[in-house]
Design goal:
- The protein has 210 residues and is of the alpha/beta class.
- It has one domain: NAD(P)-binding Rossmann-like Domain (Rossmann fold), CATH 3.40.50.
- Helix content is 35%, strand content 17%.
- The chain is built from six helices and eight strands, in the order βαβββααβαββαβα.
- The strands form two sheets. A six-stranded parallel β-sheet has the order 3-2-1-4-5-6, sandwiched between helices. A two-stranded parallel sheet has the order 7-8.
- Strand 5, helix 4 and strand 6 form a beta-alpha-beta unit.
- The protein is globular, with a radius of gyration of 17 Å.
- Pfam families: NAD_binding_10 (PF13460).
- It comes from Opacimonas viscosa.
- This is NAD(P)H-binding protein.
């Protein structure tokens, strides 16, 4: 007997991991429909979608609650994320990386999604003195203790490898350093080794419940 195909909603489909994730879902025989909530229309050749599974929807992220019906799927993937430099301030960064992701988790819970998976960061710790890692850690603590959320999981990548649409100086420097001295990423430091976005996307899919 063939198992029924799953449905998925992706928030943050145009980022480095999000693009790879959506493409993997579109070619996966396990998924029949992939809804992408985006800020602006997707390009005509943004994704290879041979079976016409993709359903993009341009939304206002300041009013995520108005789109809660799109969270009534098997699996919700949240790939939202920014940097303090791009956001413009710590409060603006927290709005994207904590508040919006947290709202997505709440909507997944309210709509009884079977699984919610999002992108955190290696070193995430709510007690960290590093603001970025502190926010990521606070988000983890909040979502993992959210009552009545059937299943939640986070991927914690280090520096991401892939073709970005934007330039990130710190990330580029870290990747160059990792190529010059790859021997340092062993033992306890192995988790800090740069990882390709395709692998992170694959992990997110694998973390979802059956």
């Amino acid at each position: 007997m063939v198992s029924p195909q799953k449905t998925a909603t992706v928030i943050g489909a145009t980022g480095l991991v999000g693009r790879s994730l959506v493409q993997q879902l579109l070619v996966s025989p396990e998924y029949s429909q992939v809804t992408c909530l985006v800020r602006r229309p997707l390009g005509n050749n943004e994704f290879h979608d041979p079976e016409k599974k993709l359903q993009p929807l341009v939304i206002d992220f300041d009013y995520l609650q108005d789109y809660q019906g799109y969270f009534s799927v098997n699996h919700v993937f949240c790939c939202l994320g920014t940097t303090i430099k791009k956001a413009g301030s710590k409060s603006a960064f927290r709005y994207v990386d904590f508040q919006l992701v947290h709202v997505c988790a709440q909507l997944a819970r309210a709509q009884r999604a079977q699984g919610f998976v999002w992108i955190s960061s290696v070193g995430a710790n709510k007690h960290s003195k590093n603001f970025y890692l502190k926010v990521k850690g606070e988000l983890e603590a909040s979502i993992f203790t959210m009552p009545q959320l059937e299943y939640a999981a986070a991927v914690r990548p280090s520096l991401l490898i892939g073709s970005r649409k934007e330039y990130r100086r710190g990330e580029r420097f870290g990747l160059k350093l990792s190529r010059l001295i790859p021997f340092i990423f062993v033992g306890p430091l192995k988790k800090y080794k740069p990882v390709h976005a395709d692998y992170v996307a694959q992990q997110m899919i694998q973390l979802q419940p059956e």
